[in-house]
Amino acid sequence: MFNDDKIPNNVDLSSDQRLQRALEQWQPDFLSWWREMGPEGFQEKDVYLRTAVSVTTEGWAHYDYVKMPDYRWGIFLADAVPNRTIGFGDLFGQPVWQDVPGEHRNTLRRLIVTQGDTEPASVEQQRALGRTCPSLYDLRNLFQVNVEEGRHLWAMVYLLHRYFGRDGREEAEELLARRSGNPDRPRILGAFNEPIDDWMSFYMFTMFTDRDGKYQLLALAESGFDPLSRTTRFMLTEEAHHMFVGETGVGRVVQRSAELTKESKNGNAREQGGVDLDTIQKYLNLWYSLSLDLFGSEVSTNAAAFFGAGLKGRAKEEKFEDHLAREGVVSMELPENGRLANRDVPLRSAMNEILRDGYVEDCQRGVDRWNKTLEQSGLAFRLKLPSRRFHRQQGVFAGLFFDPEGRQIERAEWEKRAGEWLPSAADRAYVKSLQPRALYAPGQMAHWIAPPAKGIDGKPLDFEYVRLA
Ligand code: BYC
């Protein structure tokens, strides 16, 4: 840990004064972006936040009240692994790079910018949620997620400034200039331009979209570009909390819905002022399919090139036997002349799909836990991940139509039935109507969501997680 007044870091920033000055110049731009696009209406409030002050077990979870603009956004890389070698691809076994190899400069910059762009995007998407939070506990979790996305932006901006010279600095400015959902200068990836304007969307996003983040970070943690690997390894520790917020958030809605369904006369939680299980399923279908898109195409020459060059591996590459992946195929059902047919895809071109496989299994584990709650309540309803083909806008299934079971259908049927599978305008209006304004009293919990199993950092549920006075 280096005690830099302005930018906390463990990269000995003050030994490189040019870099330090460049980052100190970017910092006020970041702060004005944060004030303009960060959580609306809460900038001057004290929030009980976790701040990373170092990468050690004691250091990365330091809790205290902080005003968000005073949060110590720092630059932290996981410790270097001595004598680390490239773990996959054509350069397997060679020493990792401490600098950017010239031939991979553009590709690496593009990967880092794409990763970096998602971080401020998510803060922008979530900026109005504080006004309708279901509890102070949830409000604090939202802000924790937001400040950490800000830190993840810092992580990528550090790499851009440190390793990519002038174009890196320009990209860092651009990261603050694009805006989620803005038609003229949108964020790079699809899901990051979708609105998150109710809490169901927030929980689904942190469950499914942050989990894409986990898998992309795991793949980048394998990178032969060592600074990227070390940065992403540390980001993964923070990412875990975001997925906790998502999985338990949806889980609490499921639990409450089950209770209200049972209390209702017609077997529908809406009658009792809750979110009905069908609507939960529709939100799941939406955010899961948008997040599947974030893995890119099933068959991808980009992914093959990233792998071959040692830039982006598979999650937990050491689990695999063959790290070259020059031979072998993955059998996939792919559209051919408008119909599905089995095809063998060369292993390297299937890397996006292989990463997605791990993601799908991980999502399924979360769904199984929600279904356990339903089972324990004695209800027959079960939540389900839709087919990977359902509602895709990227990859080989984009432009075709499939129902949640993965059966190909005509456009006309899709248009007729999409409202059965995805939240309709009426569903969204209903979900919003449940929480027209925020609940700010400590310990108070909205009617449509169960309280969490426990508070944060050993504090009770009625702790004042955000001081609003
Ligand atoms: N939307 O071969 P293809 C996170 C583009 S989330 C728009 O299919 P490739 C977080 C693609 O860029 C993790 N465009 O895919 C979560 C390419 O364009 P160019 C973020 C898309 O390149 C919550 C073209 O389609 N990290 O951290 O193998 C809160 C064909 O590409 C999309 C990363 O993404 C899309 N969904 O893979 C906060 C890691 N998908 O190059 C944070 C870095 C594809 O032809 N990025 N395209 O102009 C990557 O590894 C890759 O860029 C992708 C795409 C996996 C995204």
Average pLDDT confidence is 96
Shape: globular
In percent, how much strand structure appears in the residues?
Answer: 5-15%
The helicity comes to 40-55%
Rg: 23 Å
Order of helices and strands: HEEHHHHHHHEEHHHE
**Unique bound compounds:** benzoyl coenzyme A
Number of strands: 5
Question: What class do helices, strands and sheet pairing give?
Answer: mainly alpha
Provide an overview of this structure:
- It is a single chain.
- The chain has helices at 17-37, 105-125, 136-163, 165-177, 199-221, 226-263, 277-293, 301-308, 351-376, 411-421, 425-434; strands at residues 46-51, 62-67, 329-336, 339-346, 466-467.
- It is mostly helical.
- Strand 3 and strand 4 (339-346) form a beta hairpin.
- The chain has 11 helices and 5 strands; from the N terminus they run H-E-E-H-H-H-H-H-H-H-E-E-H-H-H-E.
- It starts with 16 loop residues before the first helix and ends with a strand.
- The strands form 2 sheets. The chain has a 3-stranded antiparallel beta sheet. Strands 3-4 form a two-stranded antiparallel ribbon.
- It binds benzoyl coenzyme A (BYC).
- Residues 111, 114-115, 118-119, 122, 149, 189-190, 209-210, 212-213, 216, 293-297, 300, 302-303, 312, 352, 394 line the site of benzoyl coenzyme A (BYC).
